[in-house]
Amino acid sequence: MNGEEAVYEMLWDCKYCGQKKLLGVTHRFCAGCGAPQDPNARYFPPDHEKVAVKNHPYVGADVVCPSCRQPMSRAAKCCTNCGGPIDKGAEVARQADVVVPPPGGYPPGAYPAGAHAPGAHAPGAYPPGAHAPGAYPHGAYPPGAHAPGAYPQQPFRSAAQGFQPAPPKKSSAGLILGIVGGVFALLLVLVLVAVFWKREAALAVTGHSWERSIRIERFENVRKSTWCDEIPAGARVVSRRREQRGTKREKDGQTCSTRKKDLGNGSYKEVRECTDKYKETPVYDDKCDIDVTEWRTARTATEKGASVSDTPRWPVTKVTGGTCLGCEREGSKTEKYTVLFTDAKSKDAASCDLPQAKWSTFKVGSKWKGQVRVMTGGVDCNDLIAQ
After folding, report:
1. How far is it, in rounded angstroms, from Cα 300 to Cα 333?
2. pTM for the full predicted model
């Protein structure tokens, strides 16, 4: 963020005689009635009414006299109104910062739909006290209307003062997010119930099963795509092309706005604040189609059994071995040993996958006590107790 500062006079309106647009630094007293300036009445002018501050050194925000409550310049040694010391006086209240949007917002003198410049009226609209020709006789007002002067005055904020258009109507996005969140919460509750809600059950062993498998891999030619700088040794390049490999973040100009900051002495400064904009640009690289010889899974050999007495064994693979094209070898192995149960109460079937040494100790017909998940019927296989 960078900043370029310029200083201008704030404006204020006299609440006693109604004098408008008095200058915050130049007019410490009302030019109409002589009343002292009220710091709380200061406001930022629109851009077309800005007056630059010249040859006026900034010594800090004004302070409030502790005795008579009149605002004084910080450069003063004592209050010019009552003569009291002001060294312990508090700073006057400052107006909140106003940020003027960057180009593309509302330029000075332009107003959003439905808003009009001070003193202007929409086509067909009339100011208080005026009526369309022949609409109402003098002194008569339509239902719900008020006499001239009955409207409370509302300060108008121009685009230069940081005009904020009316907020858009709320969309249904919040409702949709609420519904989606509720559904996820319900699913989470169901998952937790399914995992942790259990009951005690009496289980009887009804049988066993086992399965052993070996993946068979074959050394063969494979065509695949890879980035050309990642080609494995021994591969043959068939074709080459350009493809997007990723993106990179690049600067794409700046977004700038103007911040108006009340200096507390009847002036304000404008600071131009800019932040860098970025864009994602594609990064291209060479992609290659290659032929490469490698080990690929060709099939899976499996051996099964249905009892402890049927001793578990690995399947016969009859692989050739070697590294010739078409040669085969044994790959990864898997094994599973399952005990089958019946729930004595519900008569439902259940099962547990166990290590082979533990699996073989479960005799058919033996009784076990354990925990069964109410929602799924699954057995907590780690907490089985022999009966």
Report:
1. 10
2. 0.49
